[in-house]
Amino acid sequence: MSSSLSTPVSGSASRAQSGAFTATVSAITNAFGDPTRRAIYLFVRGATDGATAAEVATEFGLHPNVARHHLDKLAAGGYVEVAVARPAGGPSKRYTAVADLASGEFPVRSDDLVLSLLGKTLALLPPDQAQSIAEEVGQEYGRAMAAALTGNDLASGQRSLRSAMQSVADALTAHGFAAHAEKRNNQLRIINNHCPFGDVAIEHPVICAVDRGMVKGMLTALYGDADVSAAESLPQGDSFCSTIV
Predict the structure, then answer these.
(1) What pLDDT does residue 17 have?
(2) In the Cβ-directed half-sphere of 158, how many Cα atoms lie within 13 Å?
(3) pLDDT value at position 216?
């Protein structure tokens, strides 16, 4: 009797382990709202000696900076471990999946999911049209932010450009951008040291047009018409994002 039960028990245990692993991988996806990272994690987990950012970039057709961003996020979450190898071509990071991965609890963030949907939707449009839509949405939100700043006290054009830019930077910081205004090479810029759009902006750089639109919308309301263009950008591999005015 016990012998005949051994196989089903073993099969149940195997299915339970498989189910637990699937749940864990799903938890990773839910934690970041990013199916690409799930695929990268599975790729790294299946590699005998782990993988480098260059190998992941080649496997998934990503820019190396994007691949490195995903891997570093997985490392920060404790899903992969990082070791520095020193081949002939110079040191490089190699990422391997941790041996025992706890499933943990990761709530699904609705804003991450909405941003992922927005990014994928914009990606289906012609680039110029997608940029225009994203910037328009940003401008509308920027004007609303400026209205909240000024109330009925200040009308458009009553602030200097420098003062208006500082107000824009403060408002962006309050929305998670960690921004500040500065003058560099005789140009006024707003520097964003953090992007609240996170992974979606890395994978779908068109989202950056929302940021640019927010700056333009706020400046128009606080100062008046101003030319706004993007300079440095995280999705392009820069260490921060900046907008030139």
Answers:
(1) 52
(2) 7
(3) 92
For 28, the token pair is: 């990773």
Q: Which residues of the chain have pLDDT under 70?
A: 1-35, 85-91, 99-113, 150-159
Grouping H, G, I as helix, E, B as strand and the rest as coil, residue 17 is: helix
Check residue 170 and give its pLDDT: 86
Residue 132, classified by CB atoms within 10 Å of its CB into exposed (0-12), middle (13-18) or buried (19+), is middle
* pLDDT in the model for residue 55: 92
CA distance 226 to 155: 16
Q: How far is CA 186 from CA 111, 170, 179, 183, 218, in A?
A: 38, 22, 19, 6, 22
CA distances from 200 to 6, 54, 115 (A): 48, 20, 7
**What ranges make up the beta strands (E) of 143-228?**
179-184, 187-192
Q: How many CA atoms lie within 13 A of 227 on its CB side?
A: 2
Structural domains in the chain, sorted by start: 2-97 (1.10.10.10), 110-244 (3.30.1380.20)
Looking up tokens 């051994």, which residue turns up? Answer: 6
Structure tokens at 235: 């999705």
Q: Cβ–Cβ contacts within 10 Å for residue 14, how many?
A: 10
Q: What gap in Å lies between CA 65 and CA 9, rounded to an integer?
A: 46
Res 217: pLDDT: 92
Per-residue pLDDT at 111: 59
Is residue 80 within a helix (H) or strand (E), and if so which, with residue range? strand 80-85
